[in-house]
Amino acid sequence: MPSYNPPLRDMQFLLHEVFQVTNEFKAMPRHAEVDADTINAVLEEAGKFAVNVTFPLNISGDEEGCTLDKTTHAVTTPKGFKQAYAQFVEGGWAALSCDPAYGGQGLPFVVNQCLYEMLNSANQAWTMYPGLSHGAYEALHAYGTDAQKQLYLPKLTSGEWTGSMCLTESHCGTDLGLLRTKAEPLPDGSYKLTGNKIFISAGEHDFTSNIVHLVLARLPDAPVGSKGISLFVVPKFLVNADGSLGERNPIFCGGLEHKMGIHGNATAQLNLDGAVGTLVGQPNKGLAAMFVMMNAARLGVGNQSLGLTEVAFQNALAYAKDRLQMRSLSGTKAKDKPADPIIVHPDVRRMLLTAKAYAEGGRALSTFCSVLIDKELHHPDEKVRQNSAELVALLTPIVKAFLTDNGWTATTMSQQVYGGHGFIKEWGMEQFVRDARINMIYEGTNGIQALDLLGRKVLGNQGASLKKFGKLVGQLVEEEGVNEKMAEFINPIAMLGEQMTKFTTEIGFKGMQNPDEVGAASVDYLRVAGHLVFGYLFARMAQVALREIAAGNADPFYLAKLQTARFYFAKLFPETATLMRTARAGSRVLMDSDAALA
Questions:
Q1: Is 199 inside any structural domain?
Q2: What span, in angstroms and rounded, lies between the C-alpha atoms of 531 and 575?
Q3: Which residue intervals define the domain Acyl-CoA dehydrogenase/oxidase N-terminal in the entry (predicted)?
């Protein structure tokens, strides 16, 4: 059976020592009174909830899955899931970072992200039920009418109701311009929606009395393509003016998808048979509102893989210390035992350190982005808000794709540490691998994220956003460039930072002549950008660790951080050289391949 220990020490290191969040909060009136003790106390209790309430349900939930009564369209979640959610709501966790105007606790977003990392480590499938509600909350908070906000946000904030996002149709995944769901206006100003949606996570369940669905659909006179999409809020039960529940709305679960992983989450096929909804935002402008939800979800999906990376690493490390196999190549290490533990073998350490580096780098990136979001939302200086928003937009596809690709690598490597036992269900490792696989697919496949990064976020504004991140790298290089102890961390990012300008310009020029060049280079480009970001963050972590060691701090945490950073720069960061070479190979070898793919 697997185990899990919340990585509170690493979270505290990032929050208080690397990013010094309480200093950042002092500039934001909403969070000015939030101190380190409050943050630490909240995260400690969050860790207890994850370990004691949701983690014990992970394997059983995977084995049991969800069941659908096709007569009533009701979905029953695995044993214990509903009760765990009731505890989650009772503890106030659903409201942690929500607006106090709607009953939220108003804590910083970064604290909420730490909570969700631990919940994802403990039980990703369960965590998706409250997680989807946050996206619905954000979209309505940003684009809902006052009436919609008053009707739905208090219940979403408290967790009394949950939310879902309904985009995908059987013929229409990434290309939302193809969707067919129709919305016909009714005399009272509402709309009647008809159509079918698939792959709707948490689309039907028994946790709450109501589910608030956000649905993309077309108005009768809508333009073709993505410019003719509108967004509607369609509750499972209609809501009366006083907030009480009315009639059952005809949005029904017609089936549950049979999946590779996340069995405990109900991935629903939803049929809208004249379901009543109200318009969110402007007609035919639904994508703008939905992207608020989608971007929140993309950051959340990166956090899912971060959680799985951490829990898989923890269990692989414990197993490697205990499992006896062969003797060390450099001489016996455990003389009192018939064989040495496998952690003495270099390749086992390579796999363990890869998972550890991806967990710690991913946590640093998630924390960094979360602080930027807090600044984007609440900083009084408009320029700071704009700069933060621009950096978040640049980093969002990296969080989604780089962290989920790394999570797949880390979970499979952690499984590999177990050898044959990793393939056996009782150890729990194969579930982490299965659950991690979906994260590379949904909320926009990682190939789509790469196109978004290179085509829209970098080339789309002539590299302006990339230059802003480059300035952060340049400031660190200038600050530590003469520090010999930092050279092994600073020199690689300084070199890659310089190379990125030429690399990006080269792809941009080729793309102007042939757009396929951008598509051919984008996935490699995203990984290069991901390593630049990780490199910058590992250098900042090493900077703090070296400073503490020089001051006489004997906490082994800092030496461990340095050793992980050294491994990252020596064994993982050099991937960038190969990636830039393959990106420069161009589109011809891909597109001039009709015979090979006949």
A1: yes
A2: 8
A3: 82-160
488 is catalytic: no
Tell me the pLDDT tens digit for each residue of 532-555: 999 999 999 999 999 999 999 999
Within 10 Å of residue 265's Cβ, how many Cβ atoms? 31
Name the residue range of residue 202's domain. 161-284
Domain boundary among 284, 306, 323: 284
Q: Which of 138, 204, 390, 443 is catalytic?
A: 443
DSSP letters, 468-523, are HHHHHHHHHHHHHTT-GGGHHHHHHHHHHHHHHHHHHHHHHHHHHH-THHHHHHHH
Same domain, 205 and 243: yes
User: Which of 54, 77, 58 has the alpha carbon at shortest distance from 66?
Assistant: 77
Which positions of the chain have pLDDT values less than 50?
none
Tokens, residue 12:
């505290």
Q: Which helix (H) or strand (E) holds 191?
A: strand 191-201
Per-residue b or e along 456-480, where b marks 16 or more CB atoms closer than 10 Å to that residue's CB: ebbbeeebebbeebbeebbebbeeb
* Pair (121, 188) in one structural domain: no
Residues 179 and 122 in one domain: no
Angle at 439 between CA 437 and CA 444, to 5 degrees: 125
Q: Is 305 a domain residue?
A: no
DSSP state of 31: G
